[in-house]
Design brief:
It is a single chain. Strand 6 and strand 7 form a beta hairpin. 31% of the residues lie in helices and 19% in strands. By secondary structure, it is of the alpha+beta class. It has 2 domains: 121 residues, Metalloproteases ("zincins"), catalytic domain (Zincin-like, 2-Layer Sandwich), CATH 3.30.2010; 50 residues, no CATH class. Bound molecules: zinc ion. The site of zinc ion has 4 residues, from helix 2.
């Protein structure tokens, strides 16, 4: 692969919507130079910031790339570039591949030379407001996402199901609760 200067994009200023748009154009040009648009499973259409804060980014098969607004104002430039390339890779290989080997091989190729520190990911997490996400598991092992919380509660940490004493969520009897990071790394 030819040399690709990611570093030219990394700015000293906090991330703005304009910068994300500029970075996206750069990433698209980079990927188009390797895979012409005609080879993409889905074409790129729009970029949005409103929507789920659950992931760093997400993408739909209509070509809409969503970036978590928690990136804005941080210095997580490399993490954002990685997220953009991740979402673009989904468009190239097709969403049906999810995160399988086909996806991973393409992503590795397209993100060559890009790295980011855990510190950048932490900046985005901290900018989200919520630290944790509460997850309930019902008696059949299905999980229910109960959304973001600032701190963990003993009432949920110590919860134990008993036939005489249990909690219900959305009409389902709950076997256990647990907390995960508010923004999942499985984006
Ligand atoms: Zn993904």
């Amino acid at each position: 692969m030819q040399g690709f200067l990611w570093s030219s994009l990394v700015s000293q200023s906090p991330i703005s919507k304009e910068w994300v748009q500029e970075a996206l154009s750069y990433c698209l040009d980079h990927v188009y130079s390797i895979f012409p648009q005609s080879q993409w499973a889905h074409s790129y259409r729009t970029l949005t910031f409103d929507g789920s804060k659950r992931c760093y980014g997400s993408v739909s098969n209509c070509g809409n790339i969503h970036i978590n607004p928690a990136f804005l104002g941080t210095h997580a430039h490399s993490k954002l570039l990685i997220t953009l390339i991740h979402e673009i890779t989904h468009l190239v290989v097709g969403l049906r591949h999810k995160h399988n080997q086909v996806f991973k091989a393409r992503f590795k190729q397209l993100s060559q030379g890009l790295q980011c520190s855990d510190e950048e990911a932490k900046q985005v997490l901290d900018n989200n407001g919520y630290k944790h996400r509460l997850i309930a598991t019902d008696m059949e092992g299905k999980t229910i996402d109960l959304g973001g919380v600032l701190r963990r509660s003993k009432a949920y940490i110590n919860y134990q199901y008993s036939p005489l004493r249990y909690r219900k969520v959305k009409g389902r009897v709950i076997q256990s609760f647990h907390y995960v990071d508010y923004v999942s790394s499985e984006y």
